[in-house]
């Protein structure tokens, strides 16, 4: 049995670092809870080019200094012990492969596959891998995957809270684990 797991905002807690970075760049004082949509371009009213230029400067630092989402290590290890094959499926650029591998190793996150897609389109890969679940915090990815027949567990975040979602929505890794365990024990 395979499970797909997004990285940023699902395992790596990069959100506050991103908000700090964009606040500093734009001279704003937003808090995480103020961010009601996934697009930071729209939130901060900046162009995609500005976004990309800022991320080129800051993303490596954000990746290496992101803390773990609470309980992600414990619960992902438990899933692996119970026979799940873990695939980390992220929109990060492949140029961050090595620092991503180092981060995952340092944080004790086990995985079989690490897929850096440089794209938010995760549907083909999820289908190819036949994942039983994809754990994801980006509501737009979740809609696309759900439309494509992939079982999504939406990981709660301020930017997806106000968006309608008929599927499973979890607030913690304890909840995610409970849902999977109940379904497959
Ligand atoms: Mg994410």
Largest sheet: 6 strands, parallel
Number of individual domains: 2
Beta-strand content estimate = 5-15%
Fraction of residues in helix: 40-55%
> How many strands in all?
6
- CATH homologous superfamily heading of the largest domain: HAD superfamily/HAD-like
| Measured distance between first and last alpha carbons | 13 Å
GO biological process, one term: deoxyribonucleotide catabolic process
Keywords: Hydrolase
InterPro entries: 5'(3')-deoxyribonucleotidase, 5_3-deoxyribonucleotidase-like, HAD-like_sf, HAD_sf, Nucleotidase_putative
Protein name: Nucleotidase
Secondary structure layout plus pairing:
Elements: E1 2-5, H1 15-26, H2 40-44, H3 48-65, H4 72-81, E2 85-90, H5 97-107, E3 113-116, H6 123-129, E4 133-136, H7 139-147, E5 152-155, H8 158-161, E6 168-170, H9 173-184
Parallel strand pairs: 1-2, 1-4, 2-3, 4-5, 5-6
Bound molecules: magnesium ion.
Residues 6, 8-10, 137-138 line the site of magnesium ion.
């Amino acid at each position: 049995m395979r499970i797909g797991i997004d990285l940023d905002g699902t395992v790596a807690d990069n959100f506050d670092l991103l908000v700090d970075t964009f606040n500093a760049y734009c001279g704003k004082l937003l808090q995480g809870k103020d961010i009601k949509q996934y697009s930071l371009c729209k939130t901060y009213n900046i162009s995609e080019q500005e976004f990309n230029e800022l991320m080129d400067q800051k993303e490596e630092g954000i990746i290496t200094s992101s803390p773990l989402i609470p309980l992600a290590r414990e619960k992902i290890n438990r899933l692996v012990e119970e026979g799940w094959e873990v695939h980390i499926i992220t929109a990060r650029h492949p140029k961050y492969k090595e620092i991503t591998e180092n981060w995952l190793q340092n944080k004790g996150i086990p995985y079989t596959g690490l897929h850096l897609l440089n794209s938010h389109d995760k549907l083909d890969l999820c289908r190819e891998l036949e994942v039983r679940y994809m754990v994801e915090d980006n509501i737009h990815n979740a809609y696309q995957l759900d439309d494509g027949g992939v079982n999504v567990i939406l990981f709660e975040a301020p930017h997806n809270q106000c968006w309608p979602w008929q599927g499973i929505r979890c607030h913690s890794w304890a909840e995610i684990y409970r849902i999977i365990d109940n379904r497959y024990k």
